[in-house]
Amino acid sequence: MEIRPFVPDDVPAFLVLAAAEGWVSDPWEFAFLLGSFPRGCLAVEEEGRPAAFVTAVRYGTSGWIGNLIVAKDARGRGLGTRLMRRAVDELLTDGVKTVWLTASEAGRPLYERMGFREMDGVVRWRGTATGGAEGGSDPVRPDELISLDRAGWGDERAALLAAVAVRGIVVRQEGGFLVAQPCGDGFQIGPWAAADRSVAAGLLGRALSRLQSGAQVILDVPVRNVAAVALLNDAGFIVSGRTVLMCVGAVPVYVPERIFALATMGSMG
Q: Lower Cβ count inside 10 Å, N or C end of the chain?
């Protein structure tokens, strides 16, 4: 068994494992991750083939662990634990104070043994776009997105915001913004940040109207943001999954009332 860097040629093998688990993953994420924090993106190789993967990314003094997966025929031998410890060590060595992740109920015991604690739940919602309106992204300055995003997460995630804004549609108004990104045959909403329910409602309505009518829309939302729950129920969205938001290290600045959707499907926050 060898722990080695996760390289671009590994992406197809990872996507096969992810699809078998029902994960929502997109190749663009790996280009971003491998370019942003390559030392935290790792694979286990056995008998000439990759058997497990993990990725990590750093934002200021916080980091995010994602994409921890072990092939079914390689489970039960501690590969996931070894990868997790190595990825967390790489983040801490680089100066990170708080490490985040989202956990399934099956994976939660592993993370708890490593000292991760629950901060919130995350609910995946599914709905459909209404369509009918024209227009791409709203005019926006990058620094506007950074400050609004920081209000929820307490850290600067400029590189991530720039990456998703380029590939998606940005809807902006005073007090908030929303990005709708391509995702499979539909779209993912996120990041979505807003000062209050009124701002969030305006952003959601405008975003859904700009997407293709009837297209599937998914997003991951903190449980503690009750305003988001009410808005999505009113818009006809339904719950399709749940995970647990966990962290280890310094107590973070976390204001879920300002976070209406994560930027990615569990891999990068």
A: N
* Distance (Å) of CA 131 to CA 69, 208, 214, 263: 36, 6, 7, 22
Give domain status of residue 117, yes or no. no
Same domain, 224 and 128: yes
Q: Is 147 exposed, middle or buried (0-12, 13-18, 19+ CB in 10 A)?
A: exposed
Report which of 196, 194, 195 is spatially closest to residue 171, judged by C-alpha positions. Answer: 194
What's the whole-number mean pLDDT along residues 190-204? 97
Other beta carbons less than 10 A from residue 5's beta carbon: 12
Instruction: Supply the DSSP symbol for 22.
Output: T
Put simply, whether the predicted model's pTM sits higher than 0.85 gets the answer: yes
Rounded to the nearest 5 degrees, what angle is found at the Cα of 16, between the Cα atoms of 10 and 190? 90
- Phi-psi bin for 145: left (phi > 0), alpha (psi -120 to 50), beta? alpha
